[in-house]
Amino acid sequence: QVQLVESGGGLVQAGGSLRLSCAASGRTFSRNAMGWFRQAPGKEREFVAVVTWGDSTYYKDSVKGRFTISRDNAKNTVYLQMNSLKPEDTAVYYCAADTLTQRWGTYRTSSRAYDYWGQGTQVTVSS
User: Fold this and answer.
1) Percent of the chain, pLDDT > 70?
2) Which residues of 21-48 are buried (b: 16+ CB within 10 A; e: fewer)?
3) Exposure check for the chain: N or C terminus, fewer CB within 10 A?
4) Which residues pair with 97 in a beta bridge?
5) Which tens digits make up the pLDDT trace of 74-83?
6) CA angle 17, 13, 34 (to 5 degrees)
């Protein structure tokens, strides 16, 4: 059974930091793009960051310079380091894997391109 399990969410003051982890089990995703998405109450799920097969990274404009996505293929884990957090970063954060594209350096920002999802972890940033 393939699973993605997020952890590391919580409550933090504006300007603070959190590190999210996404541990995969049941298969390896080293040749797949792995992404982070988020969904705030009353809003659609939105792309945050992605790391490709080949470790290229791409970010939503509003998190560039503050968030860093990385992966450790030996641990089958993807991370999202979030610094200088703002109240507008408050959301449930989801890890996702795109196993359909499977092309070096390629990434997708649409949630419809991702076929494996974690259960999400809540991030709340207080002002």
Assistant:
1) 100
2) bbbbeeeebeebbbbbbbeeeeeebebb
3) N
4) 34, 116
5) 999 999 999 9
6) 35
C-beta of residue 39 within 8 angstroms of C-beta of residue 119 = no
Buried b (16+ CB within 10 A) or exposed e, 57-90: ebbbeebeeebbbebeeeebbbbbebeebeeebb
Encode pLDDT of 23-69 as tens digits.
999 999 999 999 999 999 999 999 999 999 999 999 999 999 999 99
Per-residue confidence at 102, pLDDT binned at 50, 70, 90?
confident
The pLDDT of residue 101 is: 84
Stated as kind and residue range, the H or E segment containing 19 is strand 18-25
Residue with tokens 């990434």, as numbered in its chain: 107
Contact predicate 48/67, CB 8 Å:
yes
CB 47 within 8 A of CB 64: no
